């Protein structure tokens, strides 16, 4: 028996190997005349501008960390908000953005490409250059991004003969030259615009790299899926269109796709791209996990995420990526998409606010610290600001809001998560000369820092930058303690002679929080040598005369704040708020006489310490440390000059303090937000009502208002305080805004409404033929008609044979029903009577209406019983006719069906699934009943052909959406009367104030005389009905009652006409529903009001941005709720 079994296994194994070799050969393609060498980045020509090695990018000779955030301009329909949002990116410490360029957004019809208005990407890139933001460009052609068809144009999806992404079916690609021709055409339109903005263009350009395709796996768990010819043609087209920067990929996860091979024959085999990138989404919300379809979950509950997930996903990342070999051993570890939140779905009972709470304030910073512990120096947070799926630009996986629980919330609030993340970014920026070149310590046994608490030291790295006592050490502290404790000891191991001594330091770190502990670092004065800081250091800068090194560090929330130095350091000056000089100690370590421990007592609000060397002159360099509490740190802002076009790095592996590009020029704290303009030398300050002053440090520049003397933060700092309450115009503006907000906290809408009703008889109906006379299926679905934005409307007719009795003049009916299969939501009217509604949608894979992947379209049918009332409604129109006068007769009665079907959007075809053409609209229909005349049933369809529009994603789908006919003024507010069909309602409201009028009041010479306010508005809707929300002729939201968690809709600031502009705002809603408004039951509630958030009365460190509407007084007090608004003033420094 053993012999035959062995033979069978050998044959099976041989066949499997042969099949895999065939698939590998097939995937490598036939277009081998396009070689890897043809598209490689030309370092010889451009390397002096942009170069790279295994550690980092090198820009103009300066090693540079790439700290980026995703930005989707097409999710901000108001172009005027692009710059303010990007300014927030810069204020958060980022130096780069990645942009998905959306093919379908620019190409509404075949051959048409639009690059003006809110599609003006040339303007967008100019803004990035002005703000000092680099750009990683991702033009697709496929972008995924939870957008309809993954960014492919609607007109292209309608070409059924074209294999989108070469997908012939699920898990199987077959190269399609026709599809590639369309992709090349798109590239030839967009890439020349991008090419003008490359860093290699020599004109101050911002683009550092161009992403080819998106999450295009070469292999998925060993299965060859990616087509080399696809990548060849796209890369070659990019070069032909003038792209000279490096090309890069983004594997969906670490699979080693399309790496440049060291094999000399690489030009004849596979194809490789310059830089290998891979995405990292680590913790999914429980209802979004890839396995959520296997095990049922409560959609209203989010269980706590498990730290073990982070450990398993990230802590071996560097080793795994380097193990791919070849060029991966010579290029930076690069994550084009690092998780910055997560998106939400239809059918879920919780909102993005719950997702924000699920991840917590520390999550994004935890991701940052952890990937840096793995040697990453290039990353992009997806998302940093999510924006809005306005119109119908989102796919079936997401509803209107794309808040993503990101650092910047949808309504523009800079959250506590951003503020925690910024503290980590500022450390990386300040010490970037150290962070750009590090190697991991080989084993935990070799770590020079230990912890008293398990699972709190995750990694240690040593910088290639060497100080006076060897390489700088970076210990990555991450609290995943199973005991969830937040107080522990860090033990620095100091080798003295043949022995090893420990120095114990107190450390406070919240559970699931992290920071990078700096160690073995020599300051400007070698006698002041840091052995280890047990508290985060956020900022490092230097005085203009290079005589003082300045740090800004965190005070521990609980317990003492401690740092260990070599014994050569002494305190020259100390003090603080709630911390007397005598309370601040620099004492010999009990374990090691050669170490002194600096300790700030618990309870200090702020502190400062100046250290000198014990054996040197007082004129020698000193270290000045400013300690701030979490309230102040949450407002910490730094301006770094990140653009290195005129800089050269003089460091050759040693600390060089004379040319420190990483030193911030301006540091502030005390305000909601700040932005420094280096050209105008102005500081724009955004403040909340409770903020009164801003603390400013200026480095390396002369200013008239800076005091280098004594302050509450010590002596000799280039320090000043800006009062936010001094400018009389600003005070008046703040007071008037506060009054306005309080007056309108219940809403802004006028009492006057107008309404009209859709008349379906006016539509241009076209036939909707079946597959065959006997089939219930239809030949065409939504994209065949180009009806892909919002609704598709169907009109069916059928006849019944009826017997009328003179006594009642009413027909005698036997049961009649309507069986339909459709995607995704439908409301049904028969003879003008609403008979019900239904939704076919599933978050689970392989189910009818699946949000992504295979949708079993033969399943999902729903049967409506047509009520006697609906059938009799047709007969009512015959009363009084000649036929109705007969005593008894048989007659054929025609009936009309109207189906209003709302599509959630085309699926996006991620990874290896073929789902863009999953049908939407009406798939099949049949009227059933003994009285139904055979062959009498027919169907027509109407909608809006989006290829005839300038914007393919801006329509409700109703042909009469712009009609001005039939409007009438009413005294009542909107309500639901199901049999009235689809109704339209509109009203007007005045926008919030923005700019102040010029004032002759006295004001500070520093401050601007025209302060502005930002008051984001929310449209709140309650009730069981459907609505399309249109603001000033722009479709901004879609409301689905309890089928979607969203009830609060952001009204984009750039679309709202402000008070004093001479224009009022029009709010228009298209409304329908199957449940009537009766008294308080299903009452339609529509409000426009300022955005009310949690913690508005608390510190910025706690701001989540979570909505807090309609809370009772006790809950509102507990959560410190209030309206979110800010005042902006500009000061000359």
- Structural class by sheet pairing and helices: alpha+beta
Distance between the termini: 90 Å
Determine the CATH topology of the domain at 31-414.
Answer: TIM Barrel
Q: Helix count?
A: 20
Q: Poorly predicted ranges (pLDDT <50, ≥5 residues)?
A: 646-652, 882-887, 997-1005
CATH architecture of the domain at 31-414: Alpha-Beta Barrel
Strand tally: 60
The radius of gyration over CA amounts to 33 Å
How would a crystallographer describe the biggest sheet? Answer: 8 strands, antiparallel
Q: What would the principal axes of the Cα set say about the shape? A: globular
Strand order within the widest beta sheet:
15-17-18-21-22-25-28-27
What fraction strand?
25-35%
What is the CATH superfamily of the domain at 31-414?
Answer: Glycosidases
The percentage helix is 10-25%
Mean pLDDT: 91
CATH top level of the domain at 31-414?
A: Alpha Beta
Signal peptide: 1-18
GO molecular function: hydrolase activity, hydrolyzing O-glycosyl compounds
GO biological process, one term: carbohydrate metabolic process
Domain Glycoside hydrolase 35 catalytic: 56-423
How is this structure best summarized?
By secondary structure, the protein is α+β, with helices and mostly antiparallel strands. It has 20 helices and 60 strands.
What does this 3D model show about the protein?
The protein has 1133 residues and is of the alpha+beta class. Among the domains are: 31-414, TIM Barrel (Alpha-Beta Barrel); 734-755 and 963-1132, Jelly Rolls (Sandwich), CATH 2.60.120; 764-942, Galactose-binding domain-like (Jelly Rolls), CATH 2.60.120. It is 17% helix and 31% strand. It has 20 helices and 60 strands. The strands form 14 sheets. The protein has an eight-stranded antiparallel sheet with strand order 15-17-18-21-22-25-28-27. A seven-stranded parallel sheet has the order 12-9-6-5-4-14-13, covered by helices on one side. The longest helix is centred in the first third of the chain and has 27 residues, at 2-28. The protein is globular and about 120 Å long.
């Amino acid at each position: 028996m053993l012999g035959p079994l062995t033979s069978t296994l050998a044959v099976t194994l041989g066949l499997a190997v042969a099949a895999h070799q065939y698939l590998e050969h097939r995937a490598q393609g036939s277009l081998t005349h396009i070689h890897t060498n043809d598209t490689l980045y030309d370092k010889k020509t451009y390397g002096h501008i942009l170069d790279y090695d295994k550690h980092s990018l090198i820009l103009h000779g300066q090693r540079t960390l790439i700290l980026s955030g995703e930005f989707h301009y097409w999710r901000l329909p108001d172009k005027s908000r692009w710059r303010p949002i990007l300014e927030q990116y810069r204020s958060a410490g980022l130096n780069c953005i990645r942009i998905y360029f959306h093919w379908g957004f620019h190409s509404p019809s075949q051959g048409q490409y639009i690059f003006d208005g809110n599609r003006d990407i040339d303007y967008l890139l100019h803004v990035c250059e002005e703000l000092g933001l680099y750009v990683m460009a991702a033009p697709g052609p496929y972008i995924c991004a939870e957008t309809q068809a993954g960014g492919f144009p609607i007109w292209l999806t309608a070409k059924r003969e074209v294999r989108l992404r070469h997908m012939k079916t699920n898990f199987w690609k077959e190269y399609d030259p026709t599809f590639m021709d369309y992709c090349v055409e798109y590239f030839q339109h967009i890439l020349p615009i991008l090419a003008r903005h490359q860093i290699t263009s020599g004109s101050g350009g911002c683009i550092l790299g161009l992403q080819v395709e998106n999450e295009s796996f070469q292999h998925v768990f060993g299965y060859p899926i990616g087509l080399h010819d696809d990548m060849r043609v796209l890369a070659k087209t990019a070069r032909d269109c003038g792209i000279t920067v490096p090309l890069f990929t983004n594997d969906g996860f670490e699979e080693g796709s399309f790496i440049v091979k060291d094999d000399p024959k690489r030009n004849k085999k596979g194809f490789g791209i310059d830089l290998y990138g891979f995405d990292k989404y680590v913790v999914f919300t429980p209802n979004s996990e890839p396995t959520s379809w296997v095990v049922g979950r409560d959609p209203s509950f989010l269980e706590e995420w498990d730290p073990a997930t982070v450990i398993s996903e990230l802590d071996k990342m560097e080793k795994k990526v380097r193990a791919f070999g070849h060029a991966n051993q010579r290029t930076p570890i690069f994550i084009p998409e690092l998780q910055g939140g997560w998106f939400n779905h239809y059918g879920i009972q919780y909102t993005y606010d719950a997702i924000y709470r699920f991840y917590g304030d520390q999550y994004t910073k935890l991701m940052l610290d952890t990937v840096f512990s793995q040697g990453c120096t290039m990353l992009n947070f997806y998302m940093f600001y999510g924006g809005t799926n306005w119109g119908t630009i989102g796919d079936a996986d997401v509803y209107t809001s794309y808040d993503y629980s990101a650092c910047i919330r949808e309504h523009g609030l800079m959250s506590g998560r951003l503020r925690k993340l910024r503290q980590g970014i500022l450390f990386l920026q300040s010490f970037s000369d150290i962070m750009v070149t590090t190697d991991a310590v080989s084993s935990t046994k070799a770590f020079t820092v230990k912890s008293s608490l398990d699972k709190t030291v995750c990694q240690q790295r040593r910088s290639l930058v060497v100080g006076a006592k060897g390489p700088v050490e970076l210990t990555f502290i991450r609290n995943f303690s199973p005991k969830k404790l937040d107080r522990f000891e860090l033990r620095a191991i100091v080798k003295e002679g043949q022995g090893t001594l420990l120095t114990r330091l107190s450390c406070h770190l919240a559970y699931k929080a992290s920071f990078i502990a700096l160690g073995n670092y020599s300051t400007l004065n070698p006698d002041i040598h840091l052995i280890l800081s047990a508290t985060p250091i956020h900022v490092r800068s230097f005085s203009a005369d290079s005589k003082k090194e300045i740090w800004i560090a965190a005070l521990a929330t609980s317990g003492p704040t401690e740092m260990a130095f070599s014994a050569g350091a002494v305190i020259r000056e100390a003090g603080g708020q709630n911390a007397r000089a005598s309370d601040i100690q620099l004492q010999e370590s009990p374990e090691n006489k050669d170490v002194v421990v600096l300790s700030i007592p618990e309870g200090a609000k702020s502190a400062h310490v100046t250290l000198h060397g014990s054996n040197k002159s007082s004129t020698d360099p000193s270290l000045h440390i400013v300690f701030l509490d979490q309230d102040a740190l949450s407002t910490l802002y730094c301006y770094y000059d990140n653009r290195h076009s005129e800089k050269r790095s003089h460091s050759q592996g040693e600390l060089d303090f004379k040319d420190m590009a990483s030193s911030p020029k301006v540091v502030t704290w005390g305000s909601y937000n700040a932005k420094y303009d280096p050209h105008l030398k102005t500081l724009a300050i955004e403040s909340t009502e409770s903020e009164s002053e801003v603390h400013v440090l200026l480095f390396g520049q002369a200013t008239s208002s800076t005091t280098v003397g004594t302050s509450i933060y010590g002596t000799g700092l280039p320090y000043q305080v800006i009062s936010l309450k001094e400018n009389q115009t600003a005070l008046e503006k703040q007071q008037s805004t506060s009054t306005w907000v309080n007056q309108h906290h219940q809403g802004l809408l006028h009492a006057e409404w107008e309404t009209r009703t859709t008349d379906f008889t006016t539509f241009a109906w076209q036939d909707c033929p079946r597959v065959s006379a006997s089939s219930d299926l239809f030949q065409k679905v939504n994209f065949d008609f180009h009806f892909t934005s919002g609704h598709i409307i169907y009109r069916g007719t059928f006849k019944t044979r009826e017997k009328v009795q003179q006594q009642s003049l009413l027909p005698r009916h036997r049961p009649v029903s309507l069986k339909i299969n459709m995607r995704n939501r439908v409301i049904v009217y028969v003879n003008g009577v609403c008979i019900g509604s239904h939704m076919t949608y599933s978050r689970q894979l392989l189910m009818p209406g699946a949000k992504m992947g295979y949708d079993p379209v033969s399943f999902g049918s729903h049967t409506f019983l047509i009520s006697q009332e609906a059938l009799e409604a047709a007969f009512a129109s015959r009363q009084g006719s000649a036929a109705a006068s007969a005593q008894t007769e048989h007659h054929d009665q025609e009936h009309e069906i109207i189906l209003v079907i709302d599509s959630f959007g085309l699926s996006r075809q991620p990874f290896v699934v073929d789902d863009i053409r999953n049908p939407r609209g009406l798939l099949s229909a049949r009227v059933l009943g003994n009285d139904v005349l055979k062959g009498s049933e027919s169907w027509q369809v109407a909608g809006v052909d989006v290829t005839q529009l300038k914007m393919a994603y801006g329509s409700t789908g109703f042909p009469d959406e712009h009609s001005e006919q039939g409007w009438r003024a009413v005294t009542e507010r909107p309500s639901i009367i199901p049999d009235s069909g689809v109704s339209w309602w509109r009203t007007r409201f005045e926008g919030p104030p923005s700019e102040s009028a010029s004032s002759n009041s006295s004001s500070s010479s520093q401050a601007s005389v025209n302060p502005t306010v930002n008051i984001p508005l929310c449209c709140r809707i309650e009730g069981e009905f459907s609505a399309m929300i249109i603001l000033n002729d722009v479709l901004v939201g879609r409301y689905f009652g309890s089928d979607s968690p969203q009830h609060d809709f952001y009204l984009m600031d750039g679309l709202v006409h402000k008070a004093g502009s001479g224009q009022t705002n029009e709010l228009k809603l298209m409304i329908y529903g199957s449940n009537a408004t009766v008294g308080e039951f299903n009452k339609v509630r529509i409000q426009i009001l300022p955005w009310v958030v949690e913690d508005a009365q608390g510190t910025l460190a706690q701001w989540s941005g979570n909505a807090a509407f309609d809370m009772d007084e006790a809950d509102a007090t507990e959560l410190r709720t209030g309206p979110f608004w800010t005042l902006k003033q500009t000061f000359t420094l």
